[in-house]
Model the fold of this input.
Amino acid sequence: MSEWWTYSLSDFLLFSPRTYYRLFELYNLAVWPWQILAIGLGLVVLALWLRGGAWQGRAIAAILAACWLFVAWAYLLARYDTINWAASYFAVAFAIEALLLVWTGLVRDRLSLRPGRDVAGATGLGIFVFALFAWPLIGPVAGRPWLQAEIFGVAPDPTVVATLGVLVAADRTRWELLVVPLLWCAISGATLWTMQAPDAWLVPAAALLALVLAGWKTASRLRQASPA
Amino acid sequence: MEQTSSLSRRRLLRALAATGAAVMFRPPLASSQQARVLTKPIPSTDEALPAVGLGSWITFNVGDDTVARDACAQVMRAFFDAGGRLIDSSPMYGSSQKVIGYGLAKLNRPSSLFSADKVWISSGTRGPDQIEVSRRSWGVPRFDLLQVHNLLSWEEHLRTLLAMKAAGRLRHVGITTSEGRRHGEVERIMRAQPLDFVQVTYNILDRQVEDRILPLARERGIAVIVNRPFREGDLLRKLERHALPGWAAEIGCASWAQIILKFIVSHPAVTCAIPATTRVDHVRENMAAATGRLPDAALRARMVAHVEKL
Done:
């Protein structure tokens, strides 16, 4: 793309806000009652998080991977792709994230969570709870109909933010798992900002918080590992 | 480019409707009324085109939403009823091509349609496949105009389009740019290639093309399509805060949208402006700008001075 500096974000916005949110309405109607199952899965993640256990990390990784795959297929490929030609690339990225979750969490068992262990753990739990319970309320609070609510495991933003919560709280920061969620937050934040959505700041704010905490955890671990 | 709804415009439109002054508000226009629509000739073929067309950027990208698709079809119906012909789209515009195809099928494929689309793919060899997908989306036997979108891989695509035209599979060939980008290259292509059309951004505030592109188009006999006449609605949102100037009535304008469109199409080099909208009342209002008196050079200068001061 030549003269790239002459382009603004609005040059890349292919649809109107009305079309964007109406897509969620039609999508929610089409996949009902998957929303109930998805919230149920979110509650299972929460229970595993709080109770621990030998299969905690594996089960959480498997549930998150399933949610990422579902969003990739049911939303990005089947719905978003009808109004955004870039959606198929986003779907591939979501599928890659699902595979990484399976590989790191399920196969290699490198994802474990302990509640309230440190600031990052508590904040990560807070982010997850917010994504699961508060995210569906954002649309209605912003004046959009209930049918357009974005729900964990169904819509991309709450699924990505909930995953960030888990990754931030994990005993060890898995940067390879953070790349796709952080990129999505940048893309989604830019889309919502260009549409002048009042809640456009939420996704980037969650990403920034996750990035700061992950960086802080990594730095702390490196400090502890270095010889005195 | 989508027009905004504003109280002042609605009030104006209601007033027009109430006084019966707006011919365009009636259902399907009789052919005698359609004849009043201002047309301009395509220099290379002398075919007459209505000076206002219909864009589809953002507004027609509504996916599979049947309700929204039907609303777009209603916009298209109002456009054709008011004497419109040229509809413009691109593979870049998401579902817009399919939505246009849906609308055309609902309207029994109006014979007056002038189908203008683009090729937009970095690979020259994949251009023909993309064009065929676009043609099937529209449901037309061939395009009236195909343009190389934003000069992307223009050498290869232009070869394809010119070969299609020579084979009778395409009627007109063009190139596009927007927002003042790559004007030097556009100029070089206009000088060197046998173009029928060039598409550029032009409005009462964005007038860079007046310096070289528009004079060159006249000199070379190239038709000019004008995109983003309302700066994607921003220009109208800005202007609609102000009362219409007194001279608006001199050229039969009842809204800022009509003032902007009349300014654009009154340039001698401009063939057609392509505002996009999702609203039937707006498309009628836009088409009404292609009727009645156009501003002369003196009034155009006053229009620019007035708007620049706002």
Summary: The interface with chain B takes residues 2-3, 6, 10-11, 13-16, 19, 22-23, 26, 79, 82-85 of chain A (CB under 8 Å). Chain A has one domain: 30-214. The two ends of chain A are 51 Å apart (CA to CA).
